[in-house]
Amino acid sequence: MMRQIVLGIEMSDADREAGASGPDLALYIDHADFALLVLGADGRVRFVNQEGCDLLGYPRERLIGRDWFETCIPEPDRADARLAFRRSLERGDAEAGAAETVLTGSGSLRRIAWRSRVFRDAGGAVLGAVRSGAAAPERRPRPHETSWSLPTRENFSARARLLFDSCRALVGARAGFLTVFEEGGGALILDPGAGGRDVESSLSALVGSLRAGSYPGDGAAIENDLPGSRWGQVLPSGGSALGNILIAPLLFEGSSLGLLGFAGKPKGFTGDDAALAAVFADIVALAFNDAEIYRQLVDSERRYHTLAEIAPVGIFRTDRSGDCVYVNSYWSAITGVPLEEALGKGWERALHPDDRDRVLARWSDVLGGKCEFQEEYRFLRPDGAVFWVLGSGTRETNPEGEPIGYVRTTIDITERKRDETALKMVNKKLNLLSSITRHDILNQLTVLLGSMTLLIDDVRDPDTVRMLARSMDAARTIERQILFTRDYEEIGVNAPRWFDVEETVRVAASGLPEALRILAADVGDLEVYADPLLQKVFYNLVENSLRHGGAVTRIGVSAEPSGNDLVLVFEDDGAGVPAGLKEQIFRREYYVHTGFGLFLSREILAITGIAIRETGTPGKGARFELLVPGGAFRYR
C-alpha cells in the first residue's frame, strides 16, 4: 500500500545520478515540519526525515538500520511497545494517535504523538509502517507567558499549506483543495493551479457538494472518469475542467475532520497516490487536532488566569522542581513582590525571617512526596508590614497522572491572628481572675468546713448534728464544683500531640499505688493523638475502677483494630456498671462521689475525635471502649 513512499525515500544517490525518474520524496519530506519515520516489519528504521532526527536527537546515520525499540524505547516500555507494533502489523490497519515515551540521543526522555499506517508490497504483503508525529506537550501554557510555541490556527494554516503543496507535487496533480468542516463554509485551501476560473469554479462546486455530505466513505477515493461519475452531475460541464479527482478524508479517532483533494493528474491517479494522500491527510488531521486541543487549553488557561486574578486569595504555581512560574495579583499585593521577582526562587524573599527555615523545610518535604502543604506562616513586605497567611498546596498532574507542578493558595489570616491574640489576652485575664476567685472561695470553704467539723464535735442535739452534716455535704459539693471549673478550664488550652499509650497509663496510675500492682497494659508501641489532659482521662478511669469496682483484682488496657479505626479498651474485673447507668455516668449532673471525672474525660477525648462508651457486663466488670479514628493513632 505504501510502496511509493518507501521506494521514494529509499532511492539511493546512485539511482538519482543514473536518472531515476519521479519526484524526490525524501527532499520534500526532509523539509516538512513533522517527523516521518519508516519502520520495517522487523522493527528496524528504514528512513527518518530531518525533523524526526531533530526531534529524537540523533543524526540519521545512528538510526538507519538500527532496531527502533532497542535504540529509542526505554527498557521498561520496550516489550509492550514491540508487541503493540507487531499486533498493528498483523491487523494491517492504522494505529490511532498515541503518545509514546522515547529515549533521545542525549539520554533524556521525550513524549511523541504518533500516527501510523502500514505499507505493503505489490502482492499485498505487509512490509512495515510509516509513522508521522510531533512532540507531545510536556506542560500546559502559562497565562503570563508572552510567547507560546503552539500549533495555533494561524500556524496550522501555514503547516497545512506546506503539507498540501508537498502532497500535490508528489502525486502529480495540477489542482487541489483542503477543507476543514469546523472552519465554516468553503475551503481552507482552493488552488486551481494554472487551470483558471473553470477549474476554480469546479473545485468550489466539488467542495460544496462534499461538505454537504456527498463523500461516500471513510477512506481515500479515486475517480479518473469524473464526467461520467455521479460527482460530474453536480459540477460545471460535468467536471471536464478537472478530469479526475483524488479525495482523502482527514481522519482522527474515527471522525472525519475534513477532506484533502487533488485533481487534474494527466495520466490519472493510482492506488499509491491514494495511499500517499491518506498519509498526508492523517498528518493534516493530527495537526488540526493539536491546534484545536491547544486552542482549548489556551482558552482554559486564560479563563483560569481571569479567575485567578479576581480570586480573593493568593495563587502560586510552580513547576515540578518547585520553582515559581506564576503568582496572581492578590499574592503580589499580600507580599509586595511582583510576578517578575517571584519567579524561580524569588518568592522566598517574601517569607518572614523567623518562618523561612520552617516553611522551606516543609516545602522540601512536599516536593519529596512526603506530605501535602498546609502551613501557617508570615510574609514580611518590603515596607515592613507583616501578614499572616494560611498556605495550602496540592500536586498538579498531566492527563497521564505524572506530576508537572504544584498549585498553592494563600489566604490572608492576619485579622484572624490579631483576633486570636486579643482573645488569648482576654482569656488570660479571665483565667487569672477565675484562679484568684477560686483560690479565695476554696480558702473560705476550708475555714467553713474546719469550723463546722469542730462545731459538730461539741453539739449533742441530734437535729443540730444532722443540719450541720447536711451543711458540710453542701460545702463539699461546692468545693467539688469549684475544682471542676479548674479542671474544665484546662481542656483545649494546649495543642494536641502524640502520646505513648502504655507510658501515659502507667504515669497516670502511679498516683494510685494500689493500681500499679494490678495494672496490665499490653498495647506495644501504640501512640494516640490527643489533648495533653489524656493522662487525667486514664487517671479517672483507674480511680473509678478502684473506687466503684469493689474487689478489683485486675485492670487491663488493650487495643483492637476496627476497620480503619482502633478500639482502645480499658477494663476491670470488678462490679461493673448497671445497665441503666451506662450513658448517665458520662453526664455532668450524675456522679457518685466525683462523677465529674467521666464527663471531663469524654470532653477531653472529643477534642481529637475520640469517642468513649461503657460496654461491660454488670457483675463481671466495667469495660470502657475508646474509639480512636484513623489518623489519630500510630505505631512507632
Supply the number of helical segments: 18
Read across the widest sheet, the strand sequence of neighbours is 2-1-5-4-3
Rg measurement, Å: 41 Å
Helix proportion range: 40-55%
CATH architecture verdict of the largest domain: 2-Layer Sandwich
Average pLDDT, all residues = 83
Query: What's the CATH first level of the largest domain?
Result: Alpha Beta
In the predicted model, the low-confidence regions spanning at least 5 consecutive residues are 11-23, 139-151, 591-595
Whole-number count of domains: 5
Under CATH, the topology of the largest domain can be stated as Beta-Lactamase
CATH superfamily of the largest domain: GAF domain
Q: Describe it for me?
A:
- By secondary structure, the chain is an alpha+beta fold.
- Helices cover 42% and strands 24% of the residues.
- Helix 7 packs antiparallel against helix 9 (271-310), helix 13 (414-458) packs antiparallel against helix 14 and helix 17 packs antiparallel against helix 18.
- The longest helix is centred in the C-terminal third of the chain and has 45 residues, at 414-458.
